[in-house]
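Lecture 7 notes: from sequence to structure.

We start with a single chain of 481 residues. Read the sequence below before looking at the structure.
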Amino acid sequence: MAYKDLREFLRVLEEKNLLRRIKAEVDPILEIAEINDRVVKKGGPALFFESPRGYKFPVVTNIFGSVERMRLALEVQDLDDIGKRMLEFLEPEIPTNFIEKLKALPKLKRLSDFIPRTVKSGPCKEVILRENPSLDIFPILKTWPGDGGRFITLPMVFTKDPETGVRNCGMYRMHVYDSKTTGMHWHIHKDGARHYHKAERMGERLKVAVTIGSDPATIYSATAPLPEGVDEMLFAGFLRESPVELVKCETVDLEVPANAEIVLEGYCEPQERRLEGPFGDHTGYYSVRDEYPVFHITCITHRKDAIYPATIVGRPPMEDCFIAKATERIFLPLLKKQLPEIVDMNLPIEGVFHNIAIVSIDKRFPGHARKVMYALWGLGQMSFTKIIVVVDKDVDVQNLTEVLWRIGNNVDPKRDVVIVEGPLDVLEHASPIPAYGGKMGIDATRKWKSEGFDREWPEDIEMSPEIKRLVNEKWKEYGLE
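Now the structure, written as C-alpha cells:
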C-alpha cells in the first residue's frame, strides 16, 4: 500500500522505533548538521527536530539513512526485487494466440495504473502565498562552516522541455541568496540544465517548480538515473504501485505532487548567472564556487503544519550513500540486460559512487574485462566513473577485502591497467579540467594463455568440502564456542 505522503512514512518509522524526536531547541545553522552527522555515522535513526530556533516548522533529516529505511521507503523486502519487477514490464512475452493476449492484459492494465493523474487540489495548497512569498519562514539549513550560505538539499525540481513539453524532475541543491532567489545547481550533464539551455537559446524564461517533501518513493524518483525523456512521476508510480497525484501550480504551467509539504514556484531568466557555493558535498570536500542560473520565486504554497525535510551530505557514510546503494541494486538488472556477462556490481561508499565501480563478470574470451570497461564508460551515468575494477564471477564484489586481495595478486600494472580520457562528474576535483579527465580500468581477472600469459596460473587455497563438513559437525566438541 503506497504511502499517502511524507508524514505517513514518518509515522511508520516512529512506530518501528526508526525515528527519534528531538524536543530541545536547535539551530539550523550548523547545529542540526553536526547532530545528524554523528547519528548517521553510528547507524542511527531518522531525526525529527521539533524546535528549530526561530521557526515554527519542524525539520526532519536522515529519513533514508539505512538499508532498512530504504526498503521501508520503497516498500520491499529486498531492493533487488524492484529491478526484477522492472524487467518483467520491460520484457513482456509476445502473445502468439488469443489466450496469451488475454493473459497479457492484466500486465498492460497495471502499467496504465502507474500513469500520474492530475487532481484539482491537494494538501500542498492549504496556504498560498502570492503576495510577497518568502523563504525566510522555513528552517533552511547551513550544513558546513565553509558553505556559502543556506542550501535547500532535498528539492524535487520540476521543469518541462520548452520544445516538446516533456517533464523532468531532478534533485539539485539550491543555494539561498535571499528570501526570493536561489541558485540552481544544474550540472551540464543534467536534464534540467538541458531544458534551461534550450529556453536560453530561444530567449525565454524557463518555468520551474520545486517540491520539498513528498512520499518517499516520489522523493527517491527525483534522484534515479532514468533515461532521457522517461517521466520520473511515472517511475514513482511504478515504485508505489499507485499513480502520483499531481496538482497544477498557481503561477507557472507545471504540475507537482499534491501531497507535497512545500512548493516553490518561479522561473530562471536566460543569460542570468550568479556565483553559487561553496558547498560541503557528498565527496567529503567543498565543491568550489561557480556561475549557475538563478531561480526567482513568484509563489509559495505549503501545508499549514508543513514539515521541512533536508538531507546532509559530507564525508561518507551519509544518508545519500543509502539512496545511491538502492539505485545500484534497482538498476543492476537493467545493466545486466545490456551487458549479460555482468554478475554483480558494487559502487562502494568510499568511492562516492562515481569514483569507483567494482564489477564481476563471467569471463568468456580474451580481453573481455576491457570490453566491459569500455561498455560501462559509454552508458549513462556510468560514463562518469573514474575507476572501474573487473574481477571474475566467483569474486564477491561486496567484500572489499576480497577485492583488494584479488587486485594485489592478479594485477600486473604494466599489462592490466587501462588509462583513458573522458567525461567526469562535475564534482570531480582532481582532474585539471572541470568535468573531463583521466579514467583508469583495472583488469583483476585471472589471465589466460590466449591473453599472452604463458605461466601457470595458481589455484586458490581452499579446504576440501569433506573436511569442512567434518569440522562443522564436530565444532561443538572442540569447545571453541
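The domain at 339-451 is CATH 3.40.1670.10 (UbiD C-terminal domain-like). Keep this in mind for problem set 3.
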